[in-house]
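User: Batch of two.

Assistant: Item 1 of 2:
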Amino acid sequence: MNRCIEGGPLVGVKLWVAVRAFEECLDPIVERAIELKAPVLQHTWYKITGNLPGESTSEDLAALAARHPKASFISAHTGGDWEIGIRAIRHLPNVTAEICGGDPTTGFVDMAVRELGAERVMYGSDYAGRSFASQLAKVFGADISEDAKRLILAGNIKRMLAPIFQAKGMGL
């Protein structure tokens, strides 16, 4: 983190399947991310066949986020089972639901905006695993305002990254 974020071009941290997000061994990483003003993206998923040993659910991320209210978290895929994922994070204002992955199911973005507010929903492409069209369809097909769509597609990520860009002396 010191080399690649503080002294390098990276602007965030991605946690995936090394350990589940509720594990306390992640606390020093999150604390350093807070110091660096870097958001933390956590891969979250619910598999019908069961998750991998270190694969996190939205509840796992919620436990980590509750311990670190000053950190900015992105719930990648919003757990895949987005109805459960949205409900797991809705009480945590420091967690943003990211909508990539999965099919462009009607209702996903609508529910996320209704439960979290448009300011806590973020577009993601999941490129190269999904087509841009299928992921954009989730936003463009949602029954939400044009202002909400603008926040989801660009405004929210810009706002989240603004502190670290400013710390690095970069414009956004």
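Item 2 of 2:
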Amino acid sequence: MKGKVIAVNISEKKGQIKKPIEKGNFIKDFGLEGDAHAGKWHRQISLLAQESIDKMKALGIEGLCTGKFAENITTEGIILHTIGVGSRIKAGEVVLEISQIGKECHHGCEVFKQVGKCIMPTEGIFAKVIEGGTIKAGDGIKVLQG
């Protein structure tokens, strides 16, 4: 499967909506430089497909844009939540290993407050950085194994 990166998003604090940046520097076994979720744990990077965001738009939720669900990488062309845990994907120069699909939703987070519903608990995926480098909007993304 192949797709592309729509946006790279960052926030300084956990639970905040992320803002798009021109390109991100992804550090091996750490995550996106300067992002609140970076660190030595299994959810260094979060990804969400534009197709998942479009599902929310179809429900009539307005004002949705990249980063609104606090995802680091917004993609298009790959249904991310169908990729298995342990699979590897390459985005730009970076190799990621899927570590978790979905998560518990914290109803006090900015996403839930502003949007009223969140798709990350079912369709967001999380990954560890296996090979570092840069990712920018327009870069290709593909499943290496899975």
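The chain has a mean pLDDT of 84.
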